[in-house]
Design goal:
mainly alpha; 53% helix; membrane
Length: 87
């Protein structure tokens, strides 16, 4: 009988924080590229956080009813002004 390796989350890549687009020298292409990629990653993480919270809130509404999801509702309204394009 063979043993199956337990599944584990892959290691997350840690990116070095760089100055924002408004702080870098526009003639330095590497710095602009790094700042732009950092902005894209940060926005993607925020969008995924908002999506996860919305999914949890929708699931809570389906299982518990509208008035029992105050915990997720707090996070929903916390993130809604930031990510209004998702809601």
């Amino acid at each position: 009988m063979s043993t199956v390796e337990p599944w584990a989350y892959p290691d997350h890549k840690q990116f070095e924080r760089v100055p924002s687009l408004s702080e870098v020298d526009k003639t330095d292409r590497k710095a602009v590229y790094a700042a732009r990629n950092q902005k894209i990653r940060d926005d993607w993480v925020k969008a995924m956080e908002a999506r996860i919270i919305k999914e949890k809130l929708d699931e809570c509404y389906r299982t518990e009813g509208v008035n029992h999801c105050k915990f997720f509702l707090f996070f929903f309204f916390l993130y809604k002004p930031i990510h209004s394009f998702l809601f």
